[in-house]
Amino acid sequence: MPRYVVERAFPDGLRIPAGDEGAEVCRAVVDRNADEGVTWVHSYVSDDRKRTFCVYDAPTPEAIRKTAASNELPVDRITEVRVLDPYFYMDKRRTE
Amino acid sequence: MARETAETSGVLLERSRELAALRESLDVVRETSQGRLLLIGGEAGVGKTALLRRFCEGHGDLARIVWGACDALFTPRPLGPFVDVAQTLGDELEALIDSAARPYDVAKALMRELGAAAPTILVLEDVQRADEATLDVLRLLALRIEPIPLLILVTYRDDELDRIHPLRVVLGELATSQAVHRLKVEPFSPAAVAMLANARGFDGAELYRKTAGNPFFVTEALAVGETEIPDTIRDAVLARAARLSLGARKLIEALAVVPQASEMWLLEALADDGVERLEECLTSGMLRPEDGRVAFRHELARLSVEESLPPNRKVELHRRALAALVTPVTGSPDLARLAHHAEAAGDARAVLRFAPAAAERSASVGAHREAAAQYARALRFADDLGLEGRADLLVRCAHERFITDQFDAAIDALKEALRLYRELNDERRVGEALSTLAQVLGKTGRLGQAEKATREAIAVLEGRGPGRELARAYSTLSQLGMYAADADRTLTSGRRAIEFAERIGDSQTLIHALNNIGSLAAWSWPETSSELERSLELALQGGFEDDAGRAFSNLAELAVCRRNYRSADGYVRAGLDYCSEHGLDLYSGYLLATRAWSELDQGRWTDAASTAAHVLDMTRDSTLRTLTVLRVLATVRARRGDPGAWEPLDDALALASSAPDELQRVAPVAAARAEAAWLEGRIDDVGTETDAAFELALRRRAPWVIGELACWRWRAGIREELPPQTAEPFSLLIHGDWRRAAELWAQIGCPYEAALALSEADDEEPLRRALGECQRLGAEPVAAKVARRLRERGAQVPRGPRATTRENPANLTTRELEVLALVAQGLRNAEIAERLFLSAKTVDHHVSAILRKLGVHTRGEASAEATRLGFAGQDR
Ligand SMILES: Nc1ncnc2c1ncn2[C@@H]1O[C@H](COP(=O)(O)OP(=O)(O)O)[C@@H](O)[C@H]1O
Ligand SMILES: [Mg+2]
Fold it and tell me: What average pLDDT is seen over chain B?
């Protein structure tokens, strides 16, 4: 399944409640994603909490947009990505 | 011996989420008196039936419950599950189904019955094996369910849907319907399996590994009660049966050849006095009673037992079933069941007697897929039938396959028929089969082969003078000319076909030829399509179903080509109703593709992508409609700046390159590729992507296509002379009048095109409007371009609104958008209510909500607002 990085902007800052409530919010997102075959792998959040970079496995970009809509999350850009492992290149150079 | 399993002990494990979802749906139905349909998917044995049984047991006091199941015949009988339903609902419905009524009438009667006592839960089980007529009824119910206090619970095995499964067509069409919701039933978790296993001293991890948590298999494995857990379901089921008495085992074996619940008289015919052991089988839990009949608790168990029978015993049992069903104790003989047992008994004569008859009956209620399967069954036993009889079956089979979208199989059958007719020296039939073959080849983009076959047909038939077959051959030639948008070829052959057809009174060929001539107006220069409308009228009058389906599909396509979206959407809707009603999958697929196209043009990109994805799910062949949806999906991605646009564009290009003469393939793909290249800033590629298509479009004098391609070329800096017939909004833009072009596009109902036109402006005001429009549509790349130009002019650029509200600024619901579109067309509430199958009161509510959300006071203001926002043309 393709992997995507989804960039989202939160002009007012992203707030996820701490504790049980936060867990509940995340669980609801994960559940709704499952309907479209979308897996939220993990996210990076900027220090000011105004931007997030979320890594997703999904069948299509449309599936990502659909789940974003049902989770009421903004989507600024979707990029399809592949793993690039720096150590893979470094190891290769050593063995050559 | 009493059985102690999770089910008999009354515990349903890990189903609280599902039960809550079901309960919520029932509450919605009860509180709002509006209908809802829940599609419940999951693998065989995962516990769909158990879930619904439990739910219905618990809520029998809140709703009336009606249950229908699809039987497991290889070729199901038409309307099978509604036979069960009719037993609960009463005589009128039963009589309707007996008289081979059309799905439309059955659905109407059902809605009346089901709406009478509120609320009702209607359960339809295992629709993955439903016949087409049943699927039609289901579809009609789903589309009209809203005003009825009815909860329909539909189960299906989602692991058994292959690409061309007819259920996919239905799922595709219902995808964007508000009344339809989904629920997926998952296997047990390791924890649940461990709990069940530990309670009985089994190794939970081992049991989970072997069953993958499938509840049926878990139950069966535990029921064996031995420490060694069987490796397959079959072994588990057989081990369980082995513990019954000999008599009971014989009875179970006899019942295993009946692919649905068995009537008592049938059971007696199969098992003689073994019936005495029925009690034992029922208490063992392997069988269960069902409305005076008996069935296996689970289809997988029946299959396991049937497979394990020695061949001679199996044949013997099927023979007995056949004999008993020929003279049933009640009712008339059921042809589909007879054909099934005849084949299993290896009785060729009985197959040839019942299968073609079953095929005809299926076809007569619009279950063409079943009809094709019954003809194929007959053909497997037709060795002794003689050349003529076999060829006849082949031609009928090919026809049923063609209209149900099974092209390759249709071509195979036609080629074989052709061989037989040649052997028989039957020129008339050879010519006829060649024309039919050419039509199938033409649909799949093999224009060269198709034309060769047609010319051969004409050569064979010409010597015999004008007749039906010759008229048909000329009409076929005209159809191929129409695919190429070649007006001269279409008109010359088409007029000849019409002349012959009128002379010999062949109305079907007349309808066919009129269609070809009228359809020219989609891609080529003629201004009128009146022949096409006449073709539809005559087809409907004469009851020529596939001609009517074809006319609907071509009228819809013609309307989007000429950018008349109201007309297009109207024909799509009417056509889908008609094609579904008559089992014409072929044209349903085309109509859905046209819908996706229309949604794209009207700026409804989410809908467009989802309609396109569904069509691709159900077929991915070499037809025009596959090309259309590939292009639509790719364009949505490109316009949003999403990844994944080029893969479908390359697939579409492959489908176009194999038919370089077909403007309807070549031009749209070239335009879409040019657009995607332009959006990525590769403007140098625009010329190479469009050169050949543009040249072909000029030769064919195709106004809209010339305009669209010329416009991309112009944006890429190519300056060239435009022919006078270039469609107006494009030529205005190219000649610098972006303002008037934008107005025209807004009137036509294409908000993205309008925004593109505005983006050519130099002033701040129109550029701001373009930006707002692009942000609303989610058109990131163009929004970025426009924002850059605004900044260059020193303007402040606002951030876009949040993505979720983009396509729909006032946050209107889908239903409200629908109502608003009709308000904008000037319809009164009563008319809207009729159109949308709502009560007038509900429409009143919607209209006041719309006025509130748009912040306006009158319907006129609302219409103006709808036009400004670009969804006045929405009309579903
Ligand atoms: N949630 C459950 N808890 C316990 N047993 C279950 C559960 N779901 C299913 N089963 C068992 O699995 C068997 C198969 O379930 P069934 O509902 O017939 O499957 P499906 O209809 O999905 O093919 C049932 O007879 C029942 O014994
Ligand atoms: Mg079941």
Answer: 89
Residue B337 lies in a domain: no
The structure tokens listed for B621 are 């062949």
Please tell me whether residues B162 and B75 are part of one structural domain.
Answer: yes
Confidence of residue B808 (pLDDT cuts 50, 70, 90): low
Spatial separation of the C-alpha atoms in residues B356 and B378, rounded to whole Å:
7
- Taking CB atoms and an 8 Å cutoff, what residues of chain B touch A76? 803
Residue B100 has pLDDT above 90, yes or no: no
Q: Could B609 and A68 be called an inter-chain contact, meaning their C-beta atoms sit closer than 8 Å?
A: no
Distance CA A32, CA A28 (A): 6
- Each residue's pLDDT tens digit, B153-172: 999 988 776 656 778 878 77
Residue B387 lies in a domain: no
By the 8 A CB rule, do B453 and B437 touch? yes
Residue B154 sits in the same domain as residue B285? no
State whether B150 and B287 are in the same domain: no
* CA B108 / ligand 2 centre spacing (Å): 27
**Closest residue by Cα to residue B611 from B154, B625, B775:** B625
Q: Is residue B491, in this structure, part of any structural domain at all?
A: no
Pocket test for ligand 1, best of B219, B296, B304 (most atoms within 8 A of CB): B219
Ligand 1 near B49 CB (within 6 A): yes
C-beta neighbour count of B308 within 10 angstroms: 15
For residue B175, the CA-to-ligand 1 centroid distance in Å is 28
Question: Nearest-5° angle of CA B264, CA B265, CA B268?
Answer: 90
| C-alpha span between B109 and B116 (Å, rounded) | 11
SS3 content of chain A, % helix, strand, coil (to 5): 40, 25, 35
Q: Which residues pair with B789 in a beta bridge?
A: none
* Among B141, B160, B186, residue at a domain's last position: B186
Task: Judge contact between B333 and B341, C-beta under 8 A.
Answer: no
Peptide linkage before B119 cis (omega within 30 of 0): yes
- Retrieve residue B818's tokens: 């629908």
Among residues B283, B311, B339, which one ends one of the domains?
Answer: B311
Which amino acid type is present at position B27?
D
Domain that holds residue B222: 191-311
Phi, psi of A66 (to 5 degrees): -65, -45
Q: Report the C-alpha gap between B599 and B613 in whole angstroms.
A: 13
Residues B9 and B21 in one domain: yes
B851: in domain: yes
Instruction: Check whether residue B158 and residue B227 sit in a common domain.
Output: no
Instruction: State whether the Cα torsion B704-B707-B713-B718 is positive or negative.
Output: positive
Tens of pLDDT, residues B503-555: 999 999 999 999 999 999 888 877 778 999 999 999 999 999 999 999 999 99
Domains: count for chain B: 5
Ligand of minimum distance to the alpha carbon of B286: 1
Strand (E) positions, B78-179?
A: 120-125, 150-156
Assigned token pair, B109: 């009667």
pLDDT number for residue A61 = 96
Q: How far is residue B706 CA from its own chain's centroid?
A: 33
Domains and CATH numbers, chain A: 3-95 (3.30.70.3090)
Select, from the ranges B225-229, B498-502, B802-806, the one with the highest average predicted confidence (pLDDT). B498-502
- Tens of pLDDT, residue by residue over B413-424, are 999 999 999 999
The dihedral formed by the CA atoms of B276, B277, B279 and B285, expressed in degrees to the nearest 10: -160
Q: What is the CATH number of the domain that holds B630?
A: 1.25.40.10
Rounded distance from Cα B219 to ligand 2 centre (Å): 14
The tens digit of pLDDT for each residue in B848-860 reads 888 887 878 888 8
Nearest CA residue ID for atom 24, ligand 1 = B216
Chain B interface, best mutation among A10, A12, A62, A66, by max B CB count within 10 A: A62
Quickly list DSSP for B563-574. T-HHHHHHHHHH
pLDDT of B523: 85
- Determine the distance from the C-alpha atom of residue B620 to the mean position of all C-alpha atoms in its chain, rounded to a whole number: 13
